[in-house]
């Protein structure tokens, strides 16, 4: 009897352990697993000289857009290096200095650009972009593109249609922060207006646009020259306006650096011209003139034809009446005939 009670107690204990283990398993299934996003990593070891690395980023950017997130770019290297990011030979990002750069947050327009590369890349290219890394001494490190939570930024005013930068004068700096995103967006979204860069500099200038120690666009200005920014350059400026340094979360701003062999006092003006070009105005004027001539010619033809038809009918009317015998002049038949002719005359004028 005693052995039976011990056996029963053991069985009950085993059942309790089994139920507890089953409960733990069920609870573990309820806990959702953390979502892990892929990263694009470029690793280099003992690198010297200039070495290109192909990498893909379009899928990463598309995933970030689907989840309303951003992409962070970070660089680690044990030696000073330079690098460029190229799209089939065209440089879209270039490092400005060999000093350490801050982590960079790439927002909306960058994600749109990266996500679209897979659709527009060259048929012979089975990758998205190329990272060209340069070093004079052996360097080891990595470049990482990864998805991060949407980064909070300080969005500055979109700027004005006309912005003037003074350069080379006493107290002025060669590096300027430009708030011209409004003008860039307006020029990107329609054929007109056009964004012009105008300078009165007596010597050629080199303009560099970038952010966070990176360069996105270089423009060489002739002395006292004017340049209209095309869609490619506007797109580059638009992207860099939405590049954010992690240590300085300013958005809608781009850095301008001006360089020249000499340093005369000069201005660089960014002017959004909302009127069409001379060629567009000429085309509109010619089109309106031709249309006006066509309308006048059509109206003149209609008037001439109406007069001609009236003349022919009147002539026929007179000829017929004159041929009638004298007794018809005051008869009922003549009045009826005249009514018929007049009615036919009016009907023939309706055309």
Automatic annotation (TrEMBL):
Keywords: Membrane, Signal, Transmembrane, Transmembrane helix. This is Uncharacterized protein. It comes from Caenorhabditis remanei. The lineage of its organism: Eukaryota, Metazoa, Ecdysozoa, Nematoda, Chromadorea. It comes from the Eukaryota. Residues 1-21 form the signal peptide. The chain crosses the membrane at residues 282-304.
């Amino acid at each position: 009897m005693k052995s039976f009670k011990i056996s029963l107690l053991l069985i009950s204990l085993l059942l309790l352990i089994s139920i507890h283990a089953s409960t733990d398993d069920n609870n573990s299934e309820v806990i959702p697993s953390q979502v892990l996003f892929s990263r694009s990593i470029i690793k280099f070891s003992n690198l010297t000289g200039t070495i290109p690395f192909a990498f893909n980023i379009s899928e990463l950017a598309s995933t970030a857009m689907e989840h309303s997130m951003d992409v962070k770019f970070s660089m680690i290297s044990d030696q000073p290096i330079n690098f460029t990011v190229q799209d089939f030979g065209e440089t879209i990002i270039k490092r400005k200095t060999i000093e350490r750069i801050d982590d960079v947050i790439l927002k909306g327009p960058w994600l749109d650009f990266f996500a679209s590369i897979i659709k527009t890349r060259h048929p012979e290219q089975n990758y998205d972009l190329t990272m060209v890394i340069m070093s004079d001494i052996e360097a080891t490190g990595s470049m990482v593109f990864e998805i991060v939570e949407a980064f909070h930024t300080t969005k500055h005013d979109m700027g004005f249609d006309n912005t003037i930068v003074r350069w080379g004068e006493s107290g002025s700096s060669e590096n300027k922060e430009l708030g011209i995103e409004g003008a860039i967006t307006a020029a990107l979204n329609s054929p007109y207006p056009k964004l012009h860069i105008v300078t009165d500099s007596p010597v050629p200038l080199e303009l560099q646009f970038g952010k966070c120690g990176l360069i996105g666009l270089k423009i060489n200005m002739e002395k006292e020259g004017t340049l209209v920014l095309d869609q490619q350059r506007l797109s580059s400026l638009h992207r860099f306006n939405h590049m954010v340094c992690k240590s300085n979360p300013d958005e809608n701003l781009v850095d301008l650096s001006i360089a020249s062999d000499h340093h005369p006092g000069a201005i660089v003006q960014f002017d959004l011209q909302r009127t069409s070009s001379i060629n567009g105005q000429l085309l509109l004027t010619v089109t309106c003139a031709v249309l006006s001539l066509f309308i006048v010619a059509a109206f003149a033809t209609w008037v001439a034809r109406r007069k001609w038809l009236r003349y022919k009918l009147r002539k026929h009317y007179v000829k017929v009446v004159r041929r009638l015998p004298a007794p018809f002049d005051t008869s009922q038949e003549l009045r009826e005939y005249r009514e018929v002719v007049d009615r036919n005359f009016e009907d023939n004028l309706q055309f």
